[in-house]
């Protein structure tokens, strides 16, 4: 009843097109094909605000009627982040996709939450600047692909609001850091409709609590991000993309960690296992046949001399770890094709699904020195599982992913055990249950083991002080103590 009244009131305050209860809209905002976890319940409505003030109006109404609110940007998150276990209203930022101000001289840009990182980079490329955080969805701009049954999969793109909320990263993180490192300030609508701005516009500040850090990674459980000022980096003078194969995943992981430990400033170092290389071959999108062996992809960037030296240093480490000759592409167009093999990896896996297949995609991260051990044991477990699964990851950060296809409840249980084993092992190695995807619904159960009850109770305290009625994206990251 109260949700119905809230919908009516939002409709009345913001106009006819501001809120939808269309079945397709509800499904799209409560379910996703690439999520490791989906639930039966959907949101009751989807609101489409046009401005910070409209988001505040929605929050005030939901606060008044005690209706859950679930922020939604690109919908590319993978742990059931935007699902609606308690119903409520999904708030989609679709109509808030403007670049509000660009300050090339200050190397920053002010954006609304529904700007995608790829659009952003396309728009500003002539300025010589770029935004370096690059979570998955595709680099070359295609937006739909066919799966094994020739069904169209529409590819979604990560957008700034969701990227902040998940503290995402991507292939460039080893060089440029993660989302939290690129935020100057945020405009936030709190669950009761108050609007705050975390900081002014300096590139650094020591003034008081770091509210940027509080809202970044909070997965929409503390407030809505309605505007963000982001730092930008200079487009490097020279780039190169390199590829090398290895006899085993351990050799590849050893090479990657040595490269990082020696301080060679690679732009990215990514690991893909033999299965993933096979999938890329089957998709045929890169126009060449790859060796189906553990493979490292590298990005090099910097000055002309620097890139040359880095390539030679990496070549030596690859060789010392039983790697093949390092193949390097310096032509920019061909680099994009080579790199797309890495960037399309998860979509390629999705395209391998046959009737009834679901996908479980997960990530963990460990201190660098533990990475070769974890990669080796996890690869063995994946092979023992007997299902179709691949490994890849941002190994330069000690972060890697598994993507496994399964069919039915029995196989889901097997995959779940395999993922649980990997996560527990990572935490025992002083690592984390997620290096970049976040907790959502899917990884809540690991929070206590990872951070301990003391830290969890501080998080609950922060949540209660900002959202006493537990209305913002309820059911994510952790539950109230009494549940
Ligand atoms: C093929 C593929 C590859 C991927 N590769 C990577 C990768 O390399 N690195 C990586 O980090 N992730 C990766 N991901 C995961 C995903 O892209 C990231 O988590 C991304 O940051 C999610 O952004 P989004 O806009 O899609 O967010 P959404 O899915 O819309 O939302 C994610 C979370 O943020 C909250 N939220 C959304 N908008 C707002 C807002 N304006 N204010 C407050 N909260 C908000 C939502 O409530 C939800 O909890 C990949 C996903 C796919 C499908």
UniProtKB/TrEMBL annotation:
Which UniProt keywords are given for this protein, alphabetically ordered?
Answer: FAD, Flavoprotein, Mitochondrion, Oxidoreductase, Transit peptide
Molecular functions (GO terms): D-lactate dehydrogenase (cytochrome) activity; D-lactate dehydrogenase (NAD+) activity; FAD binding
Instruction: List, alphabetically, the GO terms of the cellular component aspect.
Output: mitochondrion
Task: List where this protein forms a coiled coil.
Answer: none
EC numbers, comma separated: 1.1.2.4
Q: Which domain of life is it from?
A: Eukaryota
Can the keyword Flavoprotein be found in this entry's annotation? yes
Primary localisation category = mitochondrion
Q: Where is the FAD-binding PCMH-type domain?
A: 39-235
Q: What is this protein called?
A: D-lactate dehydrogenase (cytochrome)
The source organism is Penicillium salamii
């Amino acid at each position: 009843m109260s949700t119905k009244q809230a919908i009516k009131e939002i409709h009345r305050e913001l106009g006819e097109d501001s809120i939808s209860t269309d079945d397709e809209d509800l499904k799209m905002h409560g379910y996703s094909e690439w999520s490791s976890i989906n639930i039966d319940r959907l949101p009751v409505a989807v609101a489409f605000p046009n401005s910070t003030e409209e988001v505040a109006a929605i929050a005030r109404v939901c606060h008044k009627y005690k209706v859950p609110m679930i922020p939604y940007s690109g919908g590319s998150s993978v742990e059931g982040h935007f699902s609606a276990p308690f119903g409520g209203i999904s708030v989609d930022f679709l109509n808030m996709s403007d670049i509000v101000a660009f300050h090339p001289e200050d190397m920053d840009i002010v954006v609304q939450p529904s700007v995608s990182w790829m659009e952003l980079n396309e728009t500003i490329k002539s300025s010589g600047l770029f935004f370096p955080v690059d979570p998955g969805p595709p680099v070359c701009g295609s937006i739909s692909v066919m799966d094994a049954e020739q069904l169209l999969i529409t590819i979604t793109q990560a957008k700034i609001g969701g990227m902040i909320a998940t503290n995402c990263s991507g292939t460039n993180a080893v060089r440029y850091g993660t989302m939290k490192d690129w935020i100057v300030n945020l405009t936030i609508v709190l669950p009761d409709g108050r609007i705050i701005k975390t900081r002014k516009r300096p590139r650094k500040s020591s003034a008081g609590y770091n509210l940027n850090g509080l809202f970044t990674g909070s997965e929409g459980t503390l407030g809505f991000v309605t505007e963000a000022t982001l730092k930008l980096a200079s487009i490097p003078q020279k780039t190169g993309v390199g590829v090398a194969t290895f006899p085993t995943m351990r050799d590849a992981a050893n090479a990657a960690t040595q490269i990082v430990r020696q301080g060679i400033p690679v732009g990215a170092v990514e690991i893909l296992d033999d299965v993933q290389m096979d999938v890329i071959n089957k998709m045929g999108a890169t126009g060449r046949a790859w060796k189906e062996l553990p493979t490292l992809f590298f990005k090099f960037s910097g000055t002309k001399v620097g890139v040359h030296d880095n390539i030679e240093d990496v070549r030596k480490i690859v060789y010392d770890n039983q790697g093949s000759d390092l193949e390097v592409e310096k032509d920019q167009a061909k680099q994009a094709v080579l790199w797309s093999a890495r960037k399309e990896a998860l979509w390629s896996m999705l395209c391998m699904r046959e009737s009834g297949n679901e996908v479980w995609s997960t990530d963990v991260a460990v201190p660098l020195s533990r990475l070769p051990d974890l990669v080796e044991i996890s690869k063995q477990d994946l092979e023992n599982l007997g299902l179709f699964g691949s490994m890849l990851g941002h190994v330069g950060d000690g972060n890697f992913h598994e993507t496994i296809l399964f069919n039915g409840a029995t196989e889901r249980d097997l995959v779940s055990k395999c993922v649980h084993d990997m996560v527990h092992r990572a935490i025992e190695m002083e690592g984390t249950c997620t290096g970049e995807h976040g907790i959502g619904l899917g990884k809540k159960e690991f929070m206590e083991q990872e951070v301990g009850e003391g830290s969890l109770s501080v998080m609950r305290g922060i949540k209660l002080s900002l959202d006493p009625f537990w209305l913002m994206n309820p059911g994510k990251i952790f539950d109230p103590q009494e549940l």
